[in-house]
Specification:
The complex is a heterodimer of chains A (511) and B (416). Chain A is of the alpha/beta class. Chain A has 17 helices and 16 strands. Chain A has a five-stranded parallel beta sheet with strand order 7-1-8-9-14, sandwiched between helices. In chain A, strands 3-2-6 form a three-stranded mixed beta sheet, with no helix packed on it. In chain B, the strands form two sheets. Chain B has a 14-stranded antiparallel beta barrel. A two-stranded antiparallel ribbon of chain B has the order 21-22. The chains are: A alpha/beta (511), B mainly beta (416).
Chain lengths: 511, 416
């Protein structure tokens, strides 16, 4: 009797443990969510830093885990998605080594400084990811930080020997299938059933972030002659982009094409105000007196001899006032260089002053000042000369300002790229994501989510990481939702989105 | 005897239990088999819990009952909007009870009970979708209750006694939905307090309308467990003045609400007994679970609960089939004290239908084996907890829950 009870108890115990509550329709059941006409069993993502999960000025493990392709792949698992592998970095510092010496900086973190104010600083520590340590196998996430459109089809872009000269990319060198491999070739070789392609951002972005230091190569069809900060010719973009889409769809795979956002949507260009130089009445009057000759004699004189237009003269006028909202002075290499002229008659200015005025103007409301200028503006580079204030008596150099003329080149190129992207999506029946419009909504008003408002405000807005260019995990989750929405609309699927409030923003830590 | 009792207390201290709210109705195998009725049943020393006044009517001079239940409870969660899903992997609870009664004379009986009417043990997978509300919780309260019972006449008796409670709580949750250290490990806090004690009381009455028809009433007082200087252990917190979560101590109050029970039992057709109990649990005392951290840098944690008083309707039958076997069955409807919008995953209880059965095997004159089984059925429910805030913005945690529980039990009764 006792044994029977004991036995019964034991059997019951085993039974109850396995007797789990079952939902009427469990989300984990096949068919609860549907893949529509797409097949997610093998997903490959192709792109640049945005696809890699780059954030805070570096690529690091937790950032990669929150890349939009990885977030999407987890949601794809409800509709038959398979494993999703990424070429994970070796640590969460994010820097890169090549043969033991550091070639890429660590990530930014938000640290509280001695004055009690939080700000981005580089995380201390020796990185452990050496570019020459080749990862084995293929990776679903083919996002390569720094890649421009034409890089994806460039053989040798993953050749570690080319990294020191800039001929190859250190991130791709870690996992390229061979020294001569191309990104798109390695992606296509995986024979994916589904892909996303988001490329072209760097074709304008490096020009923009360098304050227009590069050259607009529109009209030059040879990308091998381009500098790293140049704008890619739209025809070059169209040709290589089309080639990439062909490679990814050769096996009939379905996928998503994502377009290029505007630079004015990102805090790198919107955080530092154009007019934040505070001046008292005495200083303003003194400065105006100094520039009186430039404004009233030199500029009209140059117009008179036909060297510059009246428009340029107006643009070059310097004017300060007793307020908190003065525009800094800057050097603009799109202006006529009058250095030599000023040294000759009738001006006969000394060389140093002539050089100062050579391409001088005041920043105006149509310009964008880049984020790194925040630590430069108002500083006194010569400790022995307190009068030498950058933006007031020393012009801000051109690399810190994306002038209206430079913005126009960026806009023209990106508009052309976007036309190509959207046309190809239509022609190939691929899903299309208007990231430009979506990021514009984030920048203008923000996106309401379950816990607040997602905006482009630097540090506090939640969408952008501490480099001011790349999204936070929450920004990437928002991106993933946009793409999922486009997939659901195009392929009649019902893939669930994520709650973006579950994804973090900037990382706080003190070194 | 003292040694046995001590052993039992220690065993109870490691017991984990199952909660409706966090009330655990597993106070005797005989009673549980009859839908956990017993306020008007004269049957065994389980009356120490159900109605001390009934002890004085027990036939035997000395009665002792002890037993154990195995609680297999499971919670499944899913959110169709995101696909998030989780299942608890809670440890098997093994609450115990021990009751003894002694008939001093015709009108006076003494009793002692050790039991665990409140507790909860829920373990979700760490960092699951609701981890900012709870990762795991283990709440225990052991009641030790000496009892005296007076017979006023054949129709009426009264009973009661003080209750000493000692309890403990261990609770872990993530600090919010996103905070991590540099390596991506979620920041979390464990609060732990044990040996929290307080006193309460129980009073009851029994009316024998006829030899076969009994009416009983029991009131068990509210007891507030005030945890003082418990340990709050913060983990994976980034090194920053912006996240000043250093380990500290905390104070918190957890109410064990009062419970009123009235009921009747009726013996019919020689070998049959029918019993009905009505419980009213005064949950409205549980307004909020607040953790007051000693470190002033750390904001106190306020978690609105706003429970409402709830009722349980219990029905039980007993049939003395043979000299050897007594069979029992029962049913009860357990109303959830949780209001809409306050459905927190640490005690995700909606209304439940509960089915019980059991039997007693008589092994000779003195010894009985009592077995029982409870199945708790909860309907699938879409619910949310709307009182979690981030930067002043309410972030509801919603989803679909499905819960069940299977509770086999086994006990011994010894009579002399």
């Amino acid at each position: 009797m006792k044994n029977i009870l004991k036995y019964t108890f034991a059997v019951l115990a085993v039974g109850f443990v396995s007797c789990e509550p079952e939902f009427d329709s469990p989300v984990t059941d096949d068919g609860f969510y549907t893949s529509g006409s797409a097949d997610f069993s093998k997903y490959v993502s192709v792109g640049n830093s945005l696809t890699a999960g780059y954030a805070d000025g570096a690529l690091y493990i937790t950032g990669q885990n929150n890349s939009y392709p990885n977030i999407m792949a987890q949601q794809f698992s409800f509709v038959g998605g398979g494993d999703f592998t990424q070429p994970l970095m070796n640590d969460n510092l994010g820097g890169l080594l090549l043969g033991g010496s550091q070639i890429a900086e660590n990530r930014f973190v938000l640290a509280v400084g001695p004055n009690g104010n939080p700000g981005p600083v580089r995380l201390d520590g020796m990185p452990t990811t050496d570019v020459s340590n080749k990862l084995s196998g293929s990776f679903n996430n083919m996002g390569v930080p720094g890649a421009k459109s034409f890089h994806l089809v460039a053989p040798g872009y993953g050749n570690v020997a080319g990294v020191p000269t800039g001929a190859a990319n250190p991130y791709f060198a870690r996992f390229a299938s061979s020294e001569s491999a191309t990104v798109i070739g390695d992606a296509a070789a995986q024979n994916a059933t589904f892909f996303t392609l988001w490329i072209g951002n760097n074709d304008i972005l490096s020009y923009a972030t360098s304050g227009g230091a590069g050259v607009d190569q529109t009209g030059n069809l040879d990308p091998t002659s381009y500098g790293s900060n140049d704008i890619t010719d739209p025809n070059v973009f169209a040709a290589v982009y089309s080639q990439q889409v062909d490679a990814l769809t050769a096996n009939g795979a379905k996928g998503v094409l994502v377009n290029i956002p505007e630079v004015t949507s990102i805090p790198y260009f919107t955080t530092v105000p154009t007019n934040a130089i505070p001046l008292d009445a005495a200083t303003a009057a003194q400065l105006n007196a100094q520039f009186a000759a430039y404004n009233n004699q030199i500029l009209p004189g140059l117009v008179g001899i036909g060297l510059i237009s009246a428009e340029e003269a107006a643009l070059r006028m310097i004017n300060f006032s007793a307020s908190l909202n003065n525009f800094p002075i800057m050097t603009d290499d799109d202006l006529t260089d009058i250095t030599t002229v000023l040294q000759g008659p009738p001006f006969n200015l000394p060389a140093q002053l002539a050089a100062l005025l050579g391409q001088l103007r005041q920043v105006n409301a149509n310009d964008l000042i880049v984020l790194p200028a925040s630590s430069v503006l108002g500083s006194t580079p010569d400790p022995n000369n307190p009068q030498g204030v950058i933006g007031v008596s020393i012009p801000l150099t051109d690399q810190y300002v994306l002038a209206a003329s430079e913005q126009a080149r960026v806009t023209a190129a990106s508009t052309a790229y976007n036309a190509t992207i959207q046309a190809l999506a239509g022609a190939k029946n691929l899903a299309f994501v208007d990231a430009k419009a979506a990021l514009s909504r984030v920048a203008n008003g923000g996106i309401v989510y379950d816990g607040g408002l997602l905006t482009s405000q630097f540090v506090t807005g939640g969408a952008f990481s501490l480099d001011g260019v790349h999204p936070t995990p929450r920004g990437y989750a928002y991106t993933a939702n946009l793409i999922i929405q486009a997939i659901n609309d195009t392929y009649d699927a019902t893939i669930p989105k994520v709650h973006i409030g579950n994804y973090g923003t900037v990382t706080v830590t003190n070194n | 005897m003292k040694k046995v009792l001590l052993l039992a207390v220690f065993a109870l201290a490691s017991a984990v239990t199952y909660a409706g709210g966090y009330r655990v109705s597993l106070q005797g195998n005989k009673s549980l088999a009859m839908g956990h009725t017993g306020v008007a049943v004269i049957n065994s020393s389980e009356s120490v819990f159900f109605n001390p006044a009934a002890l004085v009517y027990l036939e035997d001079k000395f009665n002792i009952s002890a037993g154990i239940h195995g609680v297999f409870s499971n919670i499944a969660y899913q959110d169709a909007e995101t696909g998030a899903n989780a299942r608890t992997d809670s440890p098997v609870g093994t609450p115990l009870y021990l009751y003894a009664s002694y008939q001093a004379n015709d009108w006076l009986a003494f009793g002692l009970g050790v039991y665990t009417p409140y507790g909860s043990s829920v373990e979700y997978e760490d960092d699951w979708a609701g981890s900012h509300l709870v990762n795991n919780i283990d709440l225990q309260a052991i009641y030790i209750q000496p009892t005296v019972s007076f017979k006023i006449n054949d129709k009426l008796s009264v009973g009661g006694g003080p209750i000493y409670v000692t309890g403990s709580v261990n609770f872990n949750r993530n600090l919010n939905r996103t905070l991590t250290d540099l390596e991506g490990n979620r920041a979390n806090v464990t609060v732990d307090a044990s040996g929290v004690s307080n006193w309460g009381w129980v009073a009851s009455a029994m009316v024998n309308l006829t030899e076969d028809l009994h009416i009983g009433a029991t009131y068990r007082s509210e007891i507030i467990l005030d945890a003082e200087d418990g340990d709050a252990d913060f983990e994976n917190v980034p090194n920053s003045p912006l996240t000043p979560f250093a380990d500290t101590t905390f104070n918190a109050s957890l109410p064990l609400p009062a419970e009123m029970t009235v009921g009747m039992s009726y013996d019919f057709c020689e070998n049959w007994t029918f019993a009905f109990d009505f419980n009213r649990t005064f949950w409205d005392v549980y307004e909020s679970l607040d953790l007051d951290f000693a470190n002033p840098e750390i904001p106190d944690s306020k978690n609105a609960r706003n429970y409402k008083n709830s009722s349980i309707y219990r029905f039980g039958m007993q049939y003395e089939a043979t000299k050897m076997f007594t069979l029992r069955a029962g049913y009860y409807f357990d109303e959830s004290p949780v209001r809409e919008g306050y459905f927190a995953p640490e005690t995700p209880r909606n209304d439940s239908n509960n089915f019980t059965a059991g039997l007693t095997v008589n092994l000779g004159e003195h010894l009985q084996i009592d077995a029982s089984f409870l199945y708790s059925h909860f309907k699938e429910v879409d619910a949310s907890y709307n009182y979690y805030f981030e930067n002043g913005v309410a972030v509801p945690f919603k989803g679909t829950y499905k819960t069940n529980a299977f509770v086999p039990g086994l006990g011994l009764t010894y009579k002399l």
